[in-house]
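Write out this protein's structure.
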Amino acid sequence: MSKAALWFKMLSTGVVICVGGPALVYWVSPTEEELFKKYNPELQKRSLENREQKQQDFDNFVNKLKEYSKSDKPIWIAAAEDEARQRANIAEEQRRIAQDIQRRREKIRDESLQR
C-alpha cells in the first residue's frame, strides 16, 4: 500500500469518526417534544411545582461555594466550619426559646397562684 493510499485511508476514517459520530447521536436522540410525551404527567406537575425551590436551593449552594472559595482554607474545611457555626447558632436559638418558654410558664404559674 502506498503512502498516499494510507494517508487517504486515515483521513477518511478520521472524517467518518469526527463527523459521523455526532451526526449519528443527533439523528438518534429524541426531540424535546418526544421526551415530554414520555414523561409522567404527575411527575411533570410535581417537578414544575418544585422548580423555583430547586433553583433557589441551587443558587444558595453556588453562593456558599463562592463564599467558601474566597477564604484561604480548602472549600470542604470552610464548609465544615460554616456547618458547625450554623449548628451552634441553631442550638443557641433553641436554648433561647426554651428559656423564654420556661419564663412564660413561671409567669403564668405565678399569676395563677396570686389569684
